[in-house]
Amino acid sequence: MAGARGLGLLLLLLLPTAGASVPGTVVRLNKEVLRYVSKMGKAPLQSALQVTVPHFLSQSGEVLQPNRIQILNVHVPHLHLDFIAGFGVRLLAATNFTFKVFRDPEPLELMLPVVLLADAHVTQGPIETPVISISSCYSFFGNTSMFDGGKSPSPAWLVLLRKHIKAVLMNKLCLSISNLVQGLNVHLGTLIGLNPVGPESQIRYSLISAPNITEDSISLDINAVLFLLGKPIVLPVSATRFALPEHVGTEGAMVTVGLSQDLFDSAFLLLQKAGALNLDITGQLDSEANPLNTSALGQLIPEVARQFPNPMPVVLKVRLGATPVATLQTNDATLQLQPFVEVLAAASNSAFQSLFTLDVVVNLSLKLSVSSMKLQGSTSMLGDVQLTVASSNMGFIDMDQAHVLMGTVFEKPLLDHLNALLGMGVALPNLVNLHYTTSEVSVYEGYIVVSSGLVYQSGGGTPGRAEGGPACSLGGPCTSSHSEN
């Protein structure tokens, strides 16, 4: 209720799209998100229940007198949502309808309380998105009451009027909610698409199976597929299905998102295949910040000084042939890079001459955070850069002497490049207009958990205004019951 778009708020994170198999992601929506929808969904529910009531025909002598009826206000003082284990969500809403009946000699205003009860089934749709339908929708009517003032109509006339209003509402309330659900499901279907990761790469999510629903949460197994130039990134070793353990994450979070080791492996494999981690580090003459030139090298490597009597710029061509290795352990995430570095010097004819090559090992601490619906990373050095000569055109190279220079000119540009790349982030599963708030990232062995609040913001609206709730059945009749005065 709160309009079906509020149930959408329940599912917002869970809406990915097509894909193959793992790497896996699990999105778990906790009871706190139901409380948020219950609070923020009242206004859209009130709007959805503003149905049109046809004229009431009353006998006036020998003619039927039409009396126009207008709903002045729908107030929802109470809206409550609960998970139904193995099924979906139950909605209970207390509403008060205020009517104005235009009759001679003067209008009449009355109030009718209605309790709405609906069970929403949440399952997997044919396009691998969550689908909501209602198995039942009931309307329970209380006693009507008139506002003071004016001449009261006859009791018989009032009985007929009440029956007319109840008969209309019995049909229209569940139908209007059903229309909201249909609109929500159409909206969920539009979520199939690609989220950019880089200029030539994307990520796409899809629901692997029907949601797992308990009394405390709804969990969705989500497949994440990374694409490079339209082709999926496939891990060389078959990944295993990821299961998010119970009771992980921050207590009181609305949503808990688990991201598996396999997803990290896929992301870094994509970066390696795209060449995004490669870079050229160019030295400058007379630069204290980057003393990467033949003069500085010549002081450590005699053959460089002999072949380049005049100072010339030196370039480090950094290439990653091996995929970076991310390691996730409890409260600790690290990243290891093993780039291959070719050291070249500008010759007098403007060509570049290869001086020597290095095998490099870099160990980094990896810090993760969430911003703008994306998981972002930053790195810092763990220990010294490890340098080993792979080949040399300059004879013997004593790396104990060259290590300080090479490490100095190599370390900062590499960190700047890597942090700029990881700072762009990867989009988390999300629904349009839904935002993560106060997110915390926890690292466990083999996976990470994002614990977050949620804020719904309609286009141009105010953050925190949620729209949503379950409704009447899709593709089936609504059932209603009522009690007479």
Describe the structure.
The chain is α+β, with helices and mostly antiparallel strands and 485 residues long. The protein folds into 2 domains: 4-23 and 31-191, Bactericidal permeability-increasing protein, domain 1, CATH 3.15.10; 195-427, Bactericidal permeability-increasing protein, domain 2. The chain is 23% helix and 41% strand. It contains 8 helices and 24 strands. It has helices at 4-11, 31-40, 42-48, 155-189, 261-274, 294-298, 302-307, 399-423; strands at 24-30, 56-60, 63-84, 88-102, 108-124, 130-141, 145-146, 195-198, 201-207, 212-213, 217-228, 231-232, 255-260, 279-282, 314-319, 325-329, 332-337, 340-346, 352-371, 374-381, 386-392, 426-427, 434-444, 447-456. The strands form 3 sheets. Strands 1, 8, 9, 10, 11, 12, 13, 23 and 24 form a 9-stranded antiparallel sheet that branches. Strands 14, 15, 16, 17, 18, 19, 20, 21 and 22 form a 9-stranded antiparallel sheet that branches. Strands 2, 3, 4, 5, 6 and 7 form a 6-stranded antiparallel sheet that branches. Strand 23 and strand 24 form a beta hairpin. Helix 1 packs antiparallel against helix 2 and helix 1 runs parallel beside helix 4 (155-189). The protein is elongated and about 120 Å long. The two termini are 25 Å apart.
Strand element count: 24
- Provide the CATH architecture of the largest domain: Super Roll
CATH class of the largest domain: Alpha Beta
Q: State the domain count.
A: 2
Mean of all residue-level pLDDT scores: 83
Report the uncertain regions: 1-21, 460-485
Number of helices in the DSSP assignment: 8
CATH topology of the largest domain: Bactericidal permeability-increasing protein, domain 2
Helix-and-strand structural type: alpha+beta
Give the overall shape, derived from the CA principal axes.
elongated
* Share of residues in helices: 10-25%
- The fourth-level CATH homologous superfamily of the largest domain is Bactericidal permeability-increasing protein, domain 2
Quote the beta fraction.
35-45%
What composes the largest sheet?
Answer: 9 strands, antiparallel
